[in-house]
């Protein structure tokens, strides 16, 4: 296989500007399939979630899943689309063993949703509008496993095995209009767009939106045109780019590859490309040819879907707040800085902080607890912060123990260790581990006397007005009490003892 | 008469995975032209006020509630398969596509 030349990224933009287009497939999380009542479930034993409709046996009659239509309409509305008053399904005809009927039931010239847009906010806050051409309903295909040959690759395989559990799972395919003007930020925009679609369908609750399971899959179209030219160049379509990072890398690579082809005075071939995560490159797939002559025609076994305006408005009323607006609202309400808020979002604790604030903690305190105590532990355990086992309620309880002076921050951390070790509630752990702050002044005064005696020069400095030197004495006391003293109270007592105003 | 060439028929035959002899291609070109003309004359009969029809019965929104129904056993599912292995359908190596 020949290795493609690529041009240096910045050089590509001296003469050319990229045009992007995306097809994002979203698997819906309905209980059953698009046209059959077989379960829509991931990870079950092969061919156990199929019935005669999914296998395309002769004489069967598909029936549309109402919930899947409703989810599709919701997606259309969330993408600011028009919803078709009436639309049809169509057969897309092709032979491939992942499609047992030899056609995929899809929509052709009458998608359920069309003419929408999505405002994509890039990391620095710049907003880029992506126009949505259409969103249509269709069904997923089965899963092929190539056997023999090298490492499951299709090249050199002896045969393939097919599992039709995924065949017929409801899909919504979201197609953008050509995206012009992103310039050098095209790869970044590509990633942000797919992230935004994923976030929207997850927020709507219509998809599990797990890219590693293929719930959200992206085909990325890239072409270059000389700067200033109206007419688009020839595009390539990189298939199945299935992580956010890969979307960014694939667009970047294709820009560089196209630029090198054009710079060499050659023509870009219109073709599908395969993405390789290991080398972060694409390789040539099949050229677009009459293999794409799908001979669509209206599906005779299904009747039109009519979306009355009442039905559409009912569904619109159920839509949750859009994720981007929600973020803006929470950031303002919590009075976080840009950086603080970005860290919170990137750490995946925004929803958790919202719950924690609702449970009674101040936003600043909620951020401190999640970012300071939970995020690092979750990272070490390689789980999401919400899956670690520390709930908003636990943090509220621990924070109350600290605020009430019962424990200090260091003990709070031990209490959380206890919670994760399954030792009970924070209160129980404080009792069981003997973690109460020493609040009886007697032992503290003894420790203070000892600390002052051990560091007479420091004591002298404090008497002389250098109050900032007090840290050394406080530290001595904390050490002597094995961290069980309330540092604030210790400080007060030292000042009192030395007759100095704090 | 609609112009359906032999090449058109050969192209369709290839897309439909049909093997056709030269004689069959010639005959089908003529027959398809008649069919296309017939459809065209029906189209002419329908005025601009007649919406396109994809189904003979004027029905819409025939839906199913999202409730899990029956499935086949693996044995049933594979019973019509020409070949199977590891509870899956076994198909020849696919060489020309992704």
UniProtKB/TrEMBL annotation, chain A:
PROSITE patterns in the cross-refs: GATB
Protein name (record): Aspartyl/glutamyl-tRNA(Asn/Gln) amidotransferase subunit B
Chain ranges of the Asn/Gln amidotransferase domain: 351-498
Catalytic activity: L-aspartyl-tRNA(Asn) + L-glutamine + ATP + H2O = L-asparaginyl-tRNA(Asn) + L-glutamate + ADP + phosphate + 2 H(+); L-glutamyl-tRNA(Gln) + L-glutamine + ATP + H2O = L-glutaminyl-tRNA(Gln) + L-glutamate + ADP + phosphate + H(+)
Keyword Ligase included in the entry's annotation: yes
Family: Belongs to the GatB/GatE family. GatB subfamily.
The species this protein was found in: Arthrobacter horti
Entry's EC annotation: 6.3.5.-
Key words, A-Z: ATP-binding, Ligase, Nucleotide-binding, Protein biosynthesis
Domain of life: Bacteria
Function: Allows the formation of correctly charged Asn-tRNA(Asn) or Gln-tRNA(Gln) through the transamidation of misacylated Asp-tRNA(Asn) or Glu-tRNA(Gln) in organisms which lack either or both of asparaginyl-tRNA or glutaminyl-tRNA synthetases. The reaction takes place in the presence of glutamine and ATP through an activated phospho-Asp-tRNA(Asn) or phospho-Glu-tRNA(Gln).
Sections of the chain in a coiled coil: none
Region (Disordered) residue spans: 274-293
Subunit record text: Heterotrimer of A, B and C subunits.
TrEMBL record, chain B:
EC annotation from Swiss-Prot or TrEMBL: 6.3.5.-
Keyword Nucleus carried by entry: no
Family annotation (Gene3D superfamilies): Glu-tRNAGln amidotransferase C subunit, N-terminal domain
InterPro entries xrefs: Asp/Glu-ADT_sf_sub_c (IPR036113), GatC (IPR003837)
Leading EC class: ligase
Keywords: ATP-binding, Ligase, Nucleotide-binding, Protein biosynthesis
Key word Protein biosynthesis present: yes
Superkingdom of the organism of origin: Bacteria
Catalytic activity: L-aspartyl-tRNA(Asn) + L-glutamine + ATP + H2O = L-asparaginyl-tRNA(Asn) + L-glutamate + ADP + phosphate + 2 H(+); L-glutamyl-tRNA(Gln) + L-glutamine + ATP + H2O = L-glutaminyl-tRNA(Gln) + L-glutamate + ADP + phosphate + H(+)
Family: Belongs to the GatC family.
Assembly description: Heterotrimer of A, B and C subunits.
Functional note: Allows the formation of correctly charged Asn-tRNA(Asn) or Gln-tRNA(Gln) through the transamidation of misacylated Asp-tRNA(Asn) or Glu-tRNA(Gln) in organisms which lack either or both of asparaginyl-tRNA or glutaminyl-tRNA synthetases. The reaction takes place in the presence of glutamine and ATP through an activated phospho-Asp-tRNA(Asn) or phospho-Glu-tRNA(Gln).
Protein name: Aspartyl/glutamyl-tRNA(Asn/Gln) amidotransferase subunit C
Organism: Arthrobacter horti
Organism ancestry: Bacteria, Bacillati, Actinomycetota, Actinomycetes, Micrococcales
Name of encoding gene: gatC
